[in-house]
Amino acid sequence: MKFAFILFKYFPFGGMQRDMLRTASHLVALGHRVDIYTLSWDGELPGPGITVHVVNVEAWLNYRKYQKFIDIVLARLREDAEADFVFGYNRMPGLDAHFAADPCFVERSRRQHSPLYRLTPRYRWFARAEKAIFAADAGCEILSVAKSEIPLFQRWYATPPARFHYIPPYLSSERLALRDRQSMRTYLREAFQLAPETRVALLVGSGFAMKGLDRAIRAVAALPQAERQNLRLIAVGQDNPRPFEKLARSLGVAANLIVSKGRPDIPQLMQGADFQVHPARRENTGLVILEGMASGLPLLVTDTCGYAHHVSDADAGLVAPSPFDQPQFNALFRRMLAGERAEVWREHGLAHARQLMQENDGRAEADILVALAERKRERRHAA
């Protein structure tokens, strides 16, 4: 069969993007073909069996660019009539199935914005795109990576439960292979030209505002001078660093902050850091949380991340409760830096990650898509 994958942007360090290529590769291994349609592709092209189509679209506003892109891609698919199954990683009409990596847009908007925001063209566009996926009569199948979000979608759209297909978290045993811990500590510090005794708190994720980098910077600033003197907060991800560097300067901790673009050596950095901080404002899952656990990294996270419960379930670190309170978070950050339970958290996290690896070997998404595509074909033949 031929599968069409649609997503707005590809870059090699995004969790959703890595999931997409893994799923496409498994489909090809099963004898299928995959065409990927995207607005932009940053990175190496995939191997045989996977064809990437970059669709160039110009528009002043992102949501208008997205609409033009969707119109062009869906028109091509109608004309070619070769795709057996259309799978979208962003919300849009015309899909057979959707990978629900993001939280409910309507729910989040009502929590974070005033009612006036719902009058904007941007809100109306994204709300329509979400409704096209989750409406009770939409017919689109949903691959869900966060059980906690399902009730929210059902609250707003009355989505039938049978259309949700849960995917257990996936952790790559190859990508997250453990190396000598002391060697990784040395590797990280040499990579950023730090002294061997430097303590490192690591934040990984694109979109620093949503990931809560400002919260981590304020926690560093709240430390006594003697405790933060030998500490570096390293943030790695795709985003504009200037607002956060400005905040660090205003708080007197510019020397404690290092911001880096996305890197291919995240597993090595994780294994070399002292702890990971992920104070996201809201995140549907938070794969880097599980990757940190698989790297033996104690974690400090907010409970607004879908995978935060794994930290508390495994006793692999600390979870900041909602509503977020900066002084409370500062105290938790200081506890992490003290490292009193670091070894216990490290071992618990590793054990929990190994269990997760056994539950999903990476083929769950591909298996679900093949089953859904075969069911679609049977319905067509029956009609």
Write a structural description.
The chain has 383 residues and is of the alpha/beta class. It has 2 domains: 2-168 and 360-382, Glycogen Phosphorylase B (Rossmann fold); 181-359, Glycogen Phosphorylase B (Rossmann fold, 3-Layer(aba) Sandwich). The chain has helices at residues 15-29, 62-80, 105-112, 121-134, 150-157, 181-191, 208-211, 213-221, 225-228, 242-250, 266-272, 287-294, 308-314, 326-338, 342-359, 364-382; strands spanning 2-6, 9-10, 33-38, 40-41, 50-54, 85-88, 97-100, 141-144, 164-166, 199-204, 231-236, 257-260, 275-278, 299-302, 317-320. The strands form 3 sheets. A 7-stranded parallel sheet has the order 5-3-1-6-7-8-9, with helices on both faces. Strands 12-11-10-13-14-15 form a 6-stranded parallel sheet, with helices on both faces. Helix 1 crosses helix 16, helix 8 crosses helix 14 (326-338) and helix 12 crosses helix 15 (342-359).
Helix content: 40-55%
Structural class: alpha/beta
Largest sheet: 7 strands, parallel
Q: How are strands sequenced across the largest beta sheet?
A: 5-3-1-6-7-8-9
Quote the average pLDDT.
94
The CATH superfamily of the largest domain is known as Glycogen Phosphorylase B
Q: Tell me the fraction of residues in β-strands, as a range.
A: 15-25%
Terminal residue distance: 19 Å
Name of the CATH first level of the largest domain: Alpha Beta
CATH topology of the largest domain: Rossmann fold
Total count of strands:
15
CATH level-two architecture of the largest domain: 3-Layer(aba) Sandwich
- Tell me the Rg in angstroms: 22 Å
Low-confidence stretches: none
Based on CA inertia axes, which overall geometry fits? globular
Number of domains: 2
Tally of DSSP helical segments? 16
